[in-house]
Write the structure tokens for this entry.
Amino acid sequence: MTDYSHQLRRSRNRRWVAGVCGGLANFFGISPFWFRLAFFLAFLPGGVPGTLIYVILWIIIPPER
């Protein structure tokens, strides 16, 4: 039997857009604020780095069940 409690999943209840930051925060056990700040800082130099990484993670990380 697989333990689904500690898998990387997009969050349903800690989300602003797609739940990527909330899911990463749940997986690593820290506040989603830090991931949101990191994506915001990656967004500043033209928008492409932060947006591209976020969209890629949105596609590859499955949602919570």
Q: What stands out?
A: The chain has three helices and no strands. Helices lie at 20-28, 32-43, 48-60.
